[in-house]
Structure formats: structure tokens, C-alpha cells
Amino acid sequence: MQPIRTFNVSPSLPPRLEPLRRLAYNLHWDWNVDTKDLFRRLDSDLWESSHHNPVLMLGTISQSRLLEVVEDEGFLAQMDRANRQLDDYLQERTWYQKQREQKPKECYAYFSAEFGLVDCLPVYSGGLGVLAGDHLKSASDLGLPLVGVGLLYQQGYFAQYLNADGWQQERYLLNDFYNMPLHLERNADGSELQIAVDYPGRKVYARVWRVQVGTVPLYLLDTNIEPNNTYDHDITDQLYGGDIDMRIHQEIMLGIGGVQMLKALGLKVTAYHMNEGHAAFSALERIRLLIQEEGLNYVQARQVVASSNIFTTHTPVPAGIDLFAPEKMLYYLGYYAEIFGLPKEQFLGLGRENTGDLSGPFSMAVLALKMATFSNGVAQLHGVVSRQMFQGLWKNVPVEEVPIAAITNGVHARSCVAKSTQELYDRYLGPNWSSAPPDSPLWERMDAIPDEELWRNHERCRLDMILYVREHLVKHLTDRGASASEIVQAQEVLDPYAFTIGFARRFATYKRATLWMRDLDRIKRLLLANKDRKVQFVIAGKAHPKDIPGKELIREINHFIREQHLEKQVVFVPNYDIHISRLMVAGCDIWLNTPRRPREASGTSGMKAAMNGLPNLSVLDGWWDEADYVRTGWAIGHGENYDDPNYQDEVEANALYELLEKEVVPLFYEHRDTDGLPRPWVAKMKDAIRLNCPFFNTARMVGEYAQRAYFPASDRYHTLTVDNYAPAKELAAWKEKLGEHWFNIKIKDIDVSAVSDIEVNQTVAVKAKVDLATLTNNDVQVELYQGAIDANGEIVNAVPVVMHYQGEDAQQLSTYTGNITYTASGLQGLSLRVLPKNKNLANPYEPRLIAWAESE
Fold first, then answer.
1. What is the mean pLDDT of the chain?
2. Are 194 and 117 in contact (CB under 8 A)?
3. Is 774 helix (H, G, I), strand (E, B) or coil?
4. Are 332 and 199 in contact (CB under 8 A)?
5. pLDDT in tens, 760-798
6. Which spans in 212-280 are helix H?
7. Residues facing residue 671 across a β-bridge
8. Mean predicted confidence (pLDDT) in 237-265
9. Strand partners, 856
10. What integer pLDDT is reported at residue 320 of this predicted model?
């Protein structure tokens, strides 16, 4: 029976408890331990059964319990304190305000297909989403004028359970948006705020929900509304669900719908950040609006858009990039080509590295790179991999100068460090430890934390994790209809005093979740040989529903557990989520990571573990490659790259066993004092905290994004859009002129003052004559390019030296002079190049033009 009318029924609270509603709807409670404790105190059982959802709690808690706490002076005092803490947080003078005091009003929009903020808002699948959630939290901590843009999935990502064979099964649960910390955005007249996005033959409508993340609003689009048809309802049904058509539907809604939503909300965005290529269609919509509403032509509009766009790639392999067939692109978005005045092949070329490949697919990452003023990978090694992967977009630019930077990921400290551990840090390091930089004297206080206190706290965290794992397994087995003996066995898994290895992440095959099982005899000896040096594993993670090889790895682990009778020592924890992650990174003793280098873009779970005092045991990939992996853990291998994957697995599995047998496990169990305290291990824990916490956190990461990307992009947007976009029009016209005449540039003569044999630090004068054709000295920068010669005869580790313009000679050739010196001996090289120059360029490679001197 369909209702004739619907009502949104809000929790009924006594007036004295109204602050609870405000606290529940701002996710600041997730990283404020006092507020989280307040809701746990209200009803601890309901807190757990609601998946830590204070909104659902307030809607289902009994009135009698609410009337009880109205009379509880202790509870009211804690509530008022939490409310004041939120007030203080929202009103404090922030890092951003100190950085940008004299700047005009600005706003940064952060687009992501998923956001992992809290476990009661399951619209994330893994690391990318949790990173996006942490990005918003730290943007709030720093006071950035940032808004998040995403999709609100009715079923979110799947809930995982295992059948009797250990095979992953998926269950999709419906999210009840009205009992989540969400606000439905409305127009002034009270009606739902909606947008309409063009799809082939129809419009698709979406309403807007807001999640308040401290000071940062996250706006999420929901298409499960009338008058959309059933198929369009499902656009925001499942994260990464459906076929390729559903994927393009979702990315149109995220990118194009996201831009329309920001406009409908009245936000004047000055910098747009695309977190992965899923949101790259936002660039097309922004260009359309500038053409149709501001009167710019395509070239001018593209200039404005590209100058204020930021793109972060998380993908270290081409196979991870969204690709769409040309005919599919034209079917769904071909009308943009008409609006832009572009031939279809030129439009498709926006998403192709090789624009001459007329059958090539349309790449979302390529579109994002072509439409961005600043692009970056998410770790230093990933930056190197990305520059190599996308070098073809910048013809003739040396790979090390490809303008893809690296900003190493971080994690939000207050969200991932266990409550008791945070309190320990607060006592001994002070309240600012979560955002203190590496050079802060605060970190010198780490040694003030008594070894006994740090170790006993960690033992409590291990026990908390084990108790939860037992309870979680019992529930999982009961739901599956397992036997009574299996349920009894689950109540006894894991030893609270045994050395515990943690492994939890997405079950993609390149992460090699079963590498530790490669030699069964050897791993069994480690697990079973010495009852005084027990070793155990806690493992968790999901495979994508369509990733059959990933599911096979999960089944392989579960078969190994059963066949080797290791149920008490090796546990696979089903349905990995934020809550389980937080327990594991605090409760395990060491964090294992075994990706196939260099395919781990960054990885963040190991950072969370380190913040809780866990050493890492990992292949040198992603973030671990740039950490102090000697003092804060152990490296598997030495960063080698292999051509033979099977050989690589063999070598690195053996290296893992060697480390565990001869270094890791002995350090944990040996050299204990009379109180059973492993002081050498605790020293390593302190180093893990001291050296990793201040750098691998989102306070540093988001500050770096602000200074390197948001501030310059926003400033450039303001510069280019004044006076009815006059600077943008001038820059676009200059680029067109540059493109027409660039290839007429001729480097005519290079006069080097020295002969081929010189000494270290000897000054060598160079004079060059360049025919700039119709261009002028103001349009170009001429550089000497010096560096060592490698075995292939190429200049490597080059240093550019800007030459000085000396005027034109009688033949109207532009004369440039410069000096070089070499600080090292050996075979060194020199070349000369010409680059575009304009004060409004983000970098000289933006026009993708470069002229080199021809080698002799």
C-alpha cells in the first residue's frame, strides 16, 4: 500500500538534552573522544548495535532512559562540555586564516566517488574513500574553505560474509538516510533542493544531502527520487556496482551533477579538486557553463577551467583507469562537442594520450590531466611511476620534469589512534601532538612516556581487539548457521599475550595477501614450533564482487586455516570496515604489507598502525619506501623490481620468513625484564610514533595540498576572471598564437667557450642565437640543460640554467648568454631548450610545447 503522505519524524528529546541533536549531526564526534564517550554512556549496547550512529540512537532510545539522564548531573555536565568543545572548535582562529588573511573570499570543491568518514555512513569501499574522509576532517581542522562533493549510495558498498567453503558472498543493505547523520538540503520555501542532469533522451534528477564534517560540508547527490525511472534510481544505488554503462552514468552524475549542485547551492568555487578520474567530467560541465552563461569561447573557457583544476591520481597501473569506448562517449556526452564547437575526434582526443589513435578509448585520467593546473601522485615513488606512465602527454619533456608532483598521503590521527592511546599522548606530549610537524620539540617528549605505561596500554588494545574479534566471529557463524562446536571454537580464538601480525586491506591480487603462506612448512613451524613464542595472524579485507582471483585468495586463506587446524592462531575477520580497522591498527603488534612493488600507490593502513605504535613489516612500496624503515620497522627486500613475478614471490616470501624467524619474533619475546616488559620492542614502538606520526598525517598532507595546489589555483582563478575574464581571454589568445608559430622557432647557433676537457667547478660561458620567428623574448624562456651522461647517452639528473636575453643581432636573431659549471667529474652533457613563458601560466609545460637544440 503506497502512502498518501510521508513525514520525516525526528527524535523527540527533552529540551535539556537538545545539545545531543546538534552533537549527533556533526561528525566532529568521531574524532572527539569526549563526545563519543557521551553517546556510549547514553546507551552502550545501543551504541554498538547502531554501528556507532548517534542519530539512530536518539531516534530509538527509550524515553525512560532520556528522562533518567535529564536528572543525571554527571551526564549533563559531560554533554555541556562536549557542546562547548564543538563551539570552540567551530569558532577557533585557524591555520588557514593565518595563511590567507588578505585574500579574497574563496572556496575549494573536493570531488570523490567515495568518502569513508564513519562506519555508520557506509558509502566507501576502502583506502581511497577513507583517505577522502580524512582529507575533509583535516580540512576542517585547518579551517580550509573546502566542500566535499560525492554520491549518496542507497546500498553503499557490500557487506561481506563467508559461506561454509570460505568463499566471499555479498549482501547489500539499504541505508536509511533519515536515521543517519545527514541533512536534506532545501530551498527557501522548504521544498527539496534538486538538480537536473542531461542524459540521452531524458533528464535525471537528484536531491542533495549534507554531511557536516566539523566546519566542512560534504554534499552528496541522491537519484532515488521521483520522477526518475527505475534505472535512474539505481545510479546512486551501489558504489562501484553495475556494468560499464552504470559506471558512466555514475561519473556523469558525480562530475556534471556535482558542478550543477555547487551552482544550485550558491557556492562560488575558486578551485576544483578531482580525487581520481571519476569526477573528470566536471571539467566539461564547467566549460559548458562558461560558454553558455559567460559568453566565452571554448579556448577561453578551457583556460579558466584548467587553471583552477587539481587532479590526484591514485593509480599506478593503466589497468586501474576508467576507460570508455569512443561510441559510448559520443552517445552520452557527444552534445558537449557541439557546444564546444569541436569535431568529434577532437573532442574524443581530450581523453586520449595519442590523439591520432581514432579507435582508442577515452581515458578519464587523461581527461583530468589535460584539464588540471596541478596534478600529483600520492607518494614519492608513486610520483615517479605516474610521470613514467603519463610521459606521453608531454612530448619531448624529460620524464623527471613531467609536471606530475607527489604529495604523500597521510591519515587523520584523532580518527585512527585508539582512545586510551590518545589520552596517553595527550598526557605526555600535550594536546597538539595530532598536528605537530616533524621539527616540533613536542616529539622530544616521547621518551617521557614510561615504557611500562605504553606497553600496558598496548596490551589492553590487543585484548580489546581480540574480544571484539571473538564476538564478531560468533555473530557471523551464528548468522551462517554454523555448528555449536564452531561457535564455541570462535569464542577462544587468539591468545591475548601472543605476538600478533595484522594484515587488512582490499584483496586485490597485487597486494599478495597469501605471500606469507607460500612455504606452508615454514609458516607452520613459525606458528606451532615454540609454545613460549606464539605467533598469530589477524586478517581482514574485501575483494570486489567481480574480482574472482581476489575472492580465491580469501578462500585460500580460510582453507589453509581449516586444513592446518590453525583456527585459534589465524583468523580471517569478515566484513572489514572502519571500526574493525581501528581495532586492528591499535591491537596488533606489527603491520604486514606485501604488495608487488611498485603497484602500491601509497597505502595508509600502515600509517595508522605506526601512529598507534606498531612497527611495519613491508615491501618497500608506497609510503613505506620513504619512511625510516630501519628504526620504525623492517623492510622486505631492498626495493628491487623484478621481471618474473613468480621469482619475486619466492625471493620476498623467503625474506619475510627470515625476518620473522631471526629478527622480528625474537625482538618481541627476548630481552624482557623481570616484569615481562620487552624494552627493545617498546623502543621501536616509540620510534614508530615519533618518526611517522608527525609526517604521515593529513594535517601535513592537506596543508601541503593547500600551499602547493589550492592557494595557487584559487589565486589564478581570481587573476584570470577579473574584468569579465579579460586576463583569461588574453592568455588563451596568447596560447593560440604560440601554437601557430612555435614550430618556426630555430636554434641557430650555440657557442661554448670551453673545449671538451674541463675541470670540476670551471665556469663555462655559453652564447646562443635563436630565431624566434614572430614570437618575442617575452614569450619564451631559453635554458641550458646540463647533467651527467648515462649508459644510453642520455642526460640524467639534469639542472636547467636560465639564459639571459642580450637583444637581437643584425640578422634579427635573439642572443642569449649563460654560464654553467659541473660539480662532479666524469662524462657530462649539455643541451639547450626553449620553453613558453607567461606570468599566468601554472608552469612552463602547461602549453605542452618545447623546442630542443639538435644534437651534433
1. 95
2. no
3. coil
4. yes
5. 999 999 999 999 999 999 999 999 999 999 998 999 999
6. 230-233, 244-252, 258-264
7. none
8. 96
9. none
10. 79
Task: Give the pLDDT of residue 1.
Answer: 61
Could you tell me if 351 and 366 are in contact, meaning their C-beta atoms sit under 8 angstroms apart? Answer: yes
The neighbour count for residue 784, using CB atoms within 10 Å, is 25
Per-residue pLDDT tens over the stretch 169-192: 999 989 999 999 999 999 999 999
Q: Look up residue 40 and give its three cell numbers.
A: 556510549
The span from the first CA to the last CA of the chain, in angstroms, equals: 84
Q: Is the pLDDT of residue 380 over 90?
A: yes
- According to the model, what pLDDT value does residue 5 have? 59
* Among candidate residues 106, 152, 114, the one with its CA nearest the CA of residue 134: 114
Q: Is residue 571 classed exposed, middle or buried when 0-12, 13-18 and 19+ CB atoms within 10 A define those classes? A: buried
Angle of the 679-692 helix axis to the 451-480 helix axis, nearest 10: 80
Peptide bond into 574 cis (omega under 30): no
Which residue carries 649539455 as its cell?
830
Alpha-carbon distance of 228 to 203, in angstroms, equals: 8
- Compute the distance between CA of residue 460 and CA of residue 420 in angstroms, rounded to an integer: 9
Place of cell 569513508: 116
In order of 131, 321, 395, 474, the CA distances from 366 in angstroms are: 22, 9, 14, 47
**Dist. CA 9–CA 561, nearest whole Å:** 48
| CA proximity to 698, closest of 276, 375, 279, 416 | 416
- 610 Cβ contact list (under 8 Å, min separation 6): 591, 616, 627, 632, 633, 688, 689, 692, 693, 696
What's the pLDDT at 432? 95
Quick one: average pLDDT of 367-389? Answer: 97
Q: Residue 409, Cα to own-chain centre: how many angstroms?
A: 6
- In this structure, of 248-262, 308-322, 421-435, the range with the lowest mean pLDDT score is 308-322
Q: What is the pLDDT of residue 772?
A: 96
Q: How far apart are CA 115 and CA 123, in angstroms?
A: 6
Closest CA to 412 of 279, 591, 582, 271: 582
Residues sharing a CB contact under 8 Å with residue 771, sequence separation 6 or more, in sequence order? 744, 745, 746, 747, 748, 812, 813, 814
Asked if 513 and 553 touch (Cβ cutoff 8 Å), the reply is: yes
In 3D space, the residue among 406, 306, 311, 417 whose CA is nearest the CA of residue 704 turns out to be 406
CA distance 542 to 125: 9
Please give the Cα distance from 303 to 732 (Å, whole number): 6
At 545, list the grid cell.
564482487
| Alpha-carbon 126 to chain mean position | 10
Tell which residue, 124, 190, 42, has the closest CA to residue 604: 124
Give mean pLDDT, residues 97-123: 95
Q: What's the rounded Cα separation, in Å, for the pair 256 and 793?
A: 47
Q: How many helices (H) and strands (E) does the chain have?
A: 30, 28
Question: Predicted confidence band at 298 (pLDDT cuts at 50, 70, 90)?
Answer: very high
Nearest-angstrom CA–CA distance, 764 and 801:
12
- Taking only the tens place, the pLDDT of each residue in 208-218 is 999 999 999 99
| C-alpha span between 776 and 797 (Å, rounded) | 30
Give the pLDDT of residue 32.
96
Percent of the chain with pLDDT strictly greater than 90: 94
Where does 743-803 show beta strands of DSSP type E? 746-752, 764-771, 780-789, 795-802
User: Cell 637544440 belongs to which residue?
Assistant: 853
Percentage of the residues of the chain whose pLDDT score is greater than 70: 99
Report which DSSP code applies to 706.
I
Check if the beta carbon of residue 501 is closer than 8 Å to that of residue 515: no
Nearest to 275 by CA among 427, 128, 392: 128
Chain center to CA of 27: 19
CA separation for the pair 757, 764 (Å, rounded): 11
Residue pair 708/295 in contact (Cβ under 8 Å)? The answer is no
Question: Beta strands of 78-201 (E only): which ranges?
Answer: 108-111, 146-151, 159-162, 168-171, 183-184, 194-199
